[in-house]
TrEMBL record:
InterPro entries: Cro/C1-type_HTH, Lambda_DNA-bd_dom_sf
Compositionally biased region (Pro residues): 66-78
Region ranges (Disordered): 62-82
UniProt lineage: Bacteria, Pseudomonadati, Bacteroidota, Cytophagia, Cytophagales
Residue intervals of the HTH cro/C1-type domain: 12-56
Superkingdom of the source species: Bacteria
Name of protein: Helix-turn-helix transcriptional regulator
């Protein structure tokens, strides 16, 4: 008789559910054995620093589930004191002024970035065509292994991510 599956709330199971990945696809992305993914997902082993580093880009884009509102929260009886609200309003105005000052250099950076984005197609057209499916030259050094892993993850992610239409991006 087959054993009933144990459902866990581990980081790997959350990532697999969020991105709709199979254990095999996640093992391929992480560069580890399928059995290792199974052990990590079940909580029988802890992920190494290399696995956590590889998972970091995926976890950064995951949204946290929203907590439901507390139905037992009732407003206090009697008149409310306006002083804490006024202090909060002053703090919010002060923070908004600081954020406006921080925004000015960011707007200038965005303008420069937009200029570079406009020039990029012309710059890329002047380069010889590169085959994105050709891996970098084999190199046993840590930098060479890192370049290969970065290339593999980019190729793997491009193969996994479906192209979005402009309408889908607008929503």
């Amino acid at each position: 008789m087959p054993r009933s599956p144990k459902y866990t709330n581990s980081l790997l199971s959350q990532i697999r559910a969020y991105y709709g990945l199979s254990q095999h696809a996640l093992a391929e992305y992480l560069g580890i054995a399928l059995s290792q993914v199974s052990h990590l997902e079940a909580g029988r082993r802890q992920p190494s620093l290399a696995v956590l580093d590889a998972l970091a880009p995926l976890t950064q884009h995951m949204t946290a589930p929203q907590a439901p509102p507390d139905p037992d929260a009732t407003p206090p009886a009697g008149p409310l004191d306006a002083a804490p609200l006024e202090a909060r309003r002053r703090h919010c105005r002060w923070r908004a002024a600081n954020l406006r000052r921080e925004l000015e250099p960011l707007a200038a950076q965005a303008t420069v970035a937009a200029r570079w984005a406009g020039a990029l197609p012309g710059l890329l057209a002047g380069l010889p065509p590169a085959d994105p499916l050709t891996p970098p030259a084999p190199d046993a050094s840590p930098a060479g292994r890192a370049a290969y892993q970065q290339w593999f993850r980019r190729v793997w992610l491009e193969a996994q991510a479906p192209a979005l239409s402009p309408e889908a991006l607008a929503h």
